[in-house]
Amino acid sequence: MNDIANLKRVLEVAATVPGNRVRFQSAGLIDVSSCNEKPQLVSDWLCAFMQLTPIDKQTVRSNPGLFLADVTDVVYRGMTSGSRGKHYIYFAGSEWNQTRIAARKHSFTWWGINDSTPVINVASRLLPVRPVDMAIAGIVDDNFIKSLLNLLQERPAVIRGYPSRICEVAARLFGKRVPPVLGVICTGENLFDYQKELLESVFGANVIEEYGCQETGISGMTCPEAGRLHLDTNRCLYEVIDGELVTTDLFNYVMPLVRYKCGDILQLYNEPCPCGRPQNGYGLTAKVLGRIEDKIHTLEGIKYPGEITMPSFDSILNYQVVRQDDKIDIWLQPKLSTELSLEGLGNWVDNTFGEVNVQILLDETNSNLQTEAKKHKNEDNRWIRTITAGQWADWLKQGWLPSGNLNKTAQLLQQLMNPAVIINSGLALQTKSLLQTILDSPPLEPQAEKITARVLLFACNFLTDTAEIKSIYNQASQKLLAIINSNDVAFIDLLIPSLYLDTDFTCNIWANYSNYARFSKLDAFSIHNLLSAIEAAAQFARKSGLTPIIKSLRPIVSVLIGDLNFFAPRFGIWLLAHWCELIHGQAVTPMEALQASLSDRFVNDWLMWRQQMLKAGKNIDIDLALSKLRSVAKSPQEKARVYIEQGYGMLVTGRQLEPLQWLKVVNQNAGILDNQSPNHDIDPVPWIPIVISLAQRLFEINEPELAYQCLVASATPNSRTSAFERLAFQVNDKQSVIIDLQAKYLAL
User: Fold this and answer.
1) What is the CATH number of domain 94-295?
2) CB atoms within 10 A of CB 63
3) Which of 112, 168, 180, 545 is deepest in the core (most CB within 10 A)?
4) Residue 430: which residues within 8 A CB-CB, separation 6 or more?
5) What is the pLDDT of residues 572-598, one digit of tens each?
């Protein structure tokens, strides 16, 4: 059987990691005589496996590196839910990722969801998975509802999210016309009867329950015929011990977790599901009762959420029950068209909890609230000053927009930088429509027209269609050229798209504009534009085929961002020209002329070194090539930069970094592994390619914990995803609709 073969394979891998050694020996699962070599499974390994002591999340979290089996095939990085306030990062490989995608696709087919059916993650922390998928996050207010309706109007879709949050959305939509919804997937929380009724009535679609625990490969979905949760036994071996689910992921060979207690309480059904799906693969069915810490005190004793019935009531759309000792707070969203009656709710409370003090909290979000942006009256000039000389984080947090001619321009920039809607295939339709509206608008007065043109050029960073980018670039550049002079800082915006446009178009850009912008300084807008363009350039490099140097310095986005952070105070287009050469594999403008104009010795020697590295063969003497740069490095930051360049040179020429020596260098200069900050300000981002290389070398010399720390520290920067996640984590967390705070605190 394939599952037996897969189990044996993952056990053979798991036997090699230090975190499993003692318990594998105690169970008699591995041959003790082979432990000094590569551990071997005993002949009767299946019987021994059943004696293996389960391991819990806390044990793995305390020393996750001890469970790392491979660092060469890390293609997936995830984070455990941290439902108890603590989490850890886990890693998985290509085969795990492929089987995960295939399993999801297979389960979707039960409900008629195919590769062209969009899934919109609504009011959750869930990011889009496939190119057609989307996500919308933020406070569930009028603007949120409008955005969701626009997405559904654009194209019928499945919506997905935490049931507590989707029900909050559904309550706002109750009684309104909703565009076609193809299904509602509820995940991350228990789904209760009243929630299912509300969702079905508002969206007119099937409600599908999804279950997942990513670090162990668990996945499941309810079937259309009987509504039972089917577990994917092709990817995971399931056991229930004392009510708690114990799993073994059959495909994670990077960080294998064997007989792992994820903290979920499940009840497995003994009889087959009436739907008739075969036991081999998806026949195992279960009911999720809740997390091990989610205990509720009731008249019948301690219950898990999934064991409690939460019915619907005629005048109540949505409600949440929070118990603490003998007090219960009930938050509810009433039906506005019906007189509120609490009799049925009161009877349910009495029958479930007995005599307790109850406080009713009515939701007031159905009133037409005005956002701060609508209240605030700001002049266009003030907004221009804010985004060219101020802190964008402050502006985005405040959320105010100018009320004059630049209102739409400001809306566009806000949606680009702080996206409430994110898709994998470019911009959301509402953002594209706003972009087109601005392009079609008549010219404004010069200052407003100039910043509008700059925002349009900035928007090119987020588009995916090359023809569309070129069209918008040409229109925006014409607007800009009509109103600026040759010394204007805005000229740099004309060069920035050359990082990610095709080489011929890029060379034409530099031929037209490089002389004008040679001495440009950066303002706040330029810096944000460059940071976003760097990420677009990294995507362009991946699609167009990585040059040997970029393959050696992955992720290249960390190299470019590190360069910008370091050289921003003394920026010149020489840096942009160098990046273009790095990305495109050829010079886009004569570098000699740019170097001749440099008076900063460190910059000049750094650029000379980078030119040597671009042309480097394996026989280059790195120390000699860096000697000039090392001699002019004065500040701690400049000296650290020389170490970074030395590491880059070794990676490009295929030389191995001595792991413990370079680990010391990284800690002394960046402090990103030992959590000790150096005595000077240093940016950890440019060290990422070096740290990734160290992970493999440290693993090879039997330092798995240090290798794990390197993998954790090497997360690829992504500003757009980070901005979305910040917004989602602020307002879209999981929130069970029945909670016992006292029981939860005791569990913690």
Assistant:
1) 3.40.50.12780
2) 14
3) 168
4) 147, 150, 151, 415, 421
5) 899 999 999 999 999 999 888 787 778
